């Protein structure tokens, strides 16, 4: 019979592998508490990672928008904000239209 790592010269009956339970309930409780703490720390790290990831996406979007605005200023074309403002102004009734409606 082969050994634990597939070594044909060592068998599991040679006493190398000892499956006797040497740990008491207290040791298992202590290990369980440590695992709970590790799990809690990992959850905290995951939350921090998610928050940082969200902030990174916001920063990337902000930088992308700033780059587009800067490029638009260099080329002289209106920025998205200016284009949006022009659209809003054109959709509003002019003073003359309002004056005609009031009469």
Short characterization:
By secondary structure, the chain is mainly α. It is 69% helix and 0% strand. Keywords: Coiled coil.
What does this structure look like?
- By secondary structure, the chain is an all-alpha fold.
- The chain is 69% helix and 0% strand.
- It contains 3 helices and no strands.
- The longest helix is centred in the middle third of the chain and has 51 residues, at 25-75.
- The N and C termini lie far apart (107 Å).
Q: How much helical structure, as a percent, in the residues?
A: 55-70%
- Our Rg estimate from Cα atoms comes to 35 Å
Question: How many beta-strand elements?
Answer: 0
> Average pLDDT, to the nearest integer?
77
Pfam families: UPF0184
Protein name: Bublin coiled-coil protein
Keywords: Coiled coil
InterPro entries: BBLN_eukaryota
Summary keywords:
mainly alpha, elongated
Give the SSE map.
Elements: H1 25-75, H2 80-91, H3 95-102
Protein name: Bublin coiled-coil protein
Keywords: Coiled coil
Coiled coil: 28-62
């Amino acid at each position: 019979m082969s050994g634990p790592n597939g070594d044909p010269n060592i068998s599991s009956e040679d006493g190398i592998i000892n499956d006797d339970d040497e740990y008491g309930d207290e040791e298992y409780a202590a290990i369980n508490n440590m695992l709970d703490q590790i799990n809690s720390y990992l959850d905290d790290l995951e939350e921090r990672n998610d928050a940082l990831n969200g902030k990174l996406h916001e920063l990337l979007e902000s930088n992308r928008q700033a780059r587009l605005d800067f490029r638009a200023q260099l080329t002289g074309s209106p920025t998205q904000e200016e284009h949006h403002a022009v659209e809003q102004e054109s959709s509003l009734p002019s003073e003359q239209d309002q004056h005609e409606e009031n009469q």
